[in-house]
Structure formats: structure tokens, C-alpha cells
UniProtKB/TrEMBL annotation:
Residue ranges constituting the HTH araC/xylS-type domain according to the UniProt record: 161-258
Organism per entry: Rhodopseudomonas palustris (strain ATCC BAA-98 / CGA009)
Lineage summary: Bacteria, Pseudomonadati, Pseudomonadota, Alphaproteobacteria, Hyphomicrobiales
Protein name: Helix-turn-helix transcriptional regulator
Molecular function terms from GO: DNA-binding transcription factor activity; sequence-specific DNA binding
InterPro entries referenced in this protein's UniProt entry, alphabetically: AraC-bd, Homeodomain-like_sf, HTH_AraC, RmlC-like_jellyroll, RmlC_Cupin_sf
Alphabetical keyword list: DNA-binding, Repressor, Transcription, Transcription regulation
Length: 273
């Protein structure tokens, strides 16, 4: 279902306060916030479920205990899983030392709670109020958060974008680089060079990153590990868990337990915890 842009019901650019927050809850099986842009930078936090953002030529996933930071002036859209609960933090340009490009930031429990508290405040709080003091501490803490790699570079090149769209729609597609080269009428060597130039990744690494992004979204929405592995075309749950652990340093169950976000692990996952 297509959702109205948050700025249609809450326009963050109407205030010049350093930071304001807004809470969103989705009840539909899948909801989309269409492409939009605003002056303020935006941090998207998932309290429940998951959200996938497209900003520039990259797809970003918002897993538990992370947030996607999108600088002001960057057009972006978002797609949320069923029953997702999100907090948006809007930051005035130059109000904090935050990255100048879109990225995923690790989010501490302190920051999460302060954003939650700020979302309870009016967007026109006074500059010398308690909310203003929360906002100042929040922005100082946020500037110190490390970056995480939960993005998929997709490029604006039409041939790379066509492959990305096809694999995003059907992530279990196991066609080889040679197969895709024939599909887009290129030599395998030329396509390999184009992928590295446009995304910075080889085809194998790029597809693995796509699988990781999809897996995090599905697991965060409550999908069972076995179903996610099958949906990504893995021959076994163990093969999927091996990929996940190599990329993130822990099994899916461990990863979500560390972030206090339970996932549905089956027998194959339990054996690996």
C-alpha cells in the first residue's frame, strides 16, 4: 500500500529547531513512503519490524539497533514490513557533525531512548526547554556512533539497475555473471568491469550483500530462518547461516538476541547458536 509521505502530515522543515522527532506505525502487510525530500537530515530508526530505504543509488536496510542517516536535500523513499514501528529524527543542517552522505549508523540504547522521548514533544518546543537539552545531548551522542555496512549499491547505470531490480524482486535467482551478461547484451568481462566501476564490488560480493540486506529485513519482520534461506535460494539453512555469520560475525539468532530483537530460528539455526 502506498503511504503518504511523512511530510504531508508532519513537515520537519517548518521549524528551525536543531532536532525534532516523529513516530510512525504501519498496519498494512507492506507500506511504502514515496520518493520525497526535505531540508533537514533524517535518521530512520526501526523499533519493530524493518524498513528498506532507497536513497541516491543505494538501498539501505534498517535492522534493530541501527538507523539509516539521510542528509538533507537527498531524495529518498522507504518500504516498511508489516506492523513496523519507526521513529524519525530530523536534524537541521549544520546542527551536528553528522556524515555528509547516506549511511547506516549503530544506535546505542541511550540514543534510542532519547529519540523516543523527543518524539513525545511538540515540534515547536522552546529553545531553553527540557526537550531542547535532550536534543543537544542526543545530537552529540549521535555524532559519535560508528557506521555499519547494511547497504546495497545499485547504480543509475540502466544495465546494472536492471539486474538489481530483477534480483531484488527475485533474490533466489542464481543466474551467473555469464548468464546476466547475455541478458544485458554484454561480454562477461565487460559486465564484470562495469559492476566494479559502478558499485565497487564484484558480482559475487554484490549479490551476497543483496542477500544480506534482504535477510536482515525478512528476519527483523519475524520470518523464520528456514524460510529466509529458502527464499534466497540457499540449498540448506547451514549454508545461509555460514554466509550470515561470515558477514556479521554471528548467527541470525545471536545477532538478533544481542539486539533484543527475537527471530524465529528453526532446528538448523539452533544447532549453530
Amino acid at each position: 500500500m502506498l503511504m503518504e509521505s511523512v511530510v504531508s502530515v508532519f513537515d520537519p522543515d517548518l521549524t528551525h529547531l536543531p532536532a525534532v522527532a516523529h513516530r510512525l506505525q504501519f498496519s498494512d502487510p507492506e507500506s511504502e513512503v514515496p520518493l520525497h525530500v526535505h531540508r533537514k537530515g533524517q535518521l530512520i530508526l526501526a523499533l519493530h519490524g524493518a524498513v528498506t530505504c532507497t536513497a541516491g543509488n543505494e538501498i539501505w536496510i534498517v535492522p534493530p539497533n541501527c538507523g539509516v542517516w539521510i542528509p538533507g536535500g537527498v531524495p529518498h523513499s522507504a518500504r516498511a514490513t508489516a506492523n513496523a514501528q519507526l521513529n524519525y529524527l530530523f536534524v537541521e543542517p549544520e546542527a551536528a557533525n553528522l556524515p555528509g552522505s547516506s549511511c547506516t549508523l549503530a544506535i546505542s540504547p541511550l540514543i534510542r531512548e532519547m529519540v523516543e522521548r523527543l518524539a513525545e514533544e511538540r515540534a515547536d518546543y522552546l529553545a531553553d526547554s527540557h526537550a531542547a537539552r535532550i536534543a543537544r545531548v542526543l545530537l552529540d551522542e549521535l555524532a559519535d556512533m560508528p557506521r555499519e555496512r547494511f547497504n546495497l549499491p545499485i547504480s543509475s547505470h540502466p544495465k546494472i539497475r536492471a539486474i538489481a531490480d530483477a534480483l531484488t524482486a527475485e533474490p533466489s535467482d542464481r543466474r551467473t555473471l555469464s548468464d546476466w551478461a547475455k541478458q544485458v547484451a554484454m561480454s562477461e568481462r565487460s559486465l564484470a568491469r562495469l559492476l566494479i566501476r559502478e558499485t565497487g564490488l564484484t558480482f559475487g560480493r554484490w549479490r551476497q550483500q543483496l542477500h544480506l540486506v534482504v535477510a536482515l529485513r525478512e528476519l527483523a519482520s519475524g520470518e523464520a530462518v528456514q524460510n529466509v534461506a529458502a527464499g534466497l535460494g540457499y540449498e540448506s539453512v547451514n549454508a545461509f547461516i555460514t554466509m550470515f555469520k561470515k558477514a556479521l560475525g554471528s548467527t541470525p539468532a545471536q545477532y538478533f538476541a544481542q539486539r533484543h530483537a527475537p527471530t524465529k530460528a528453526g532446528s538448523g539455526e539452533q544447532n549453530r547458536v
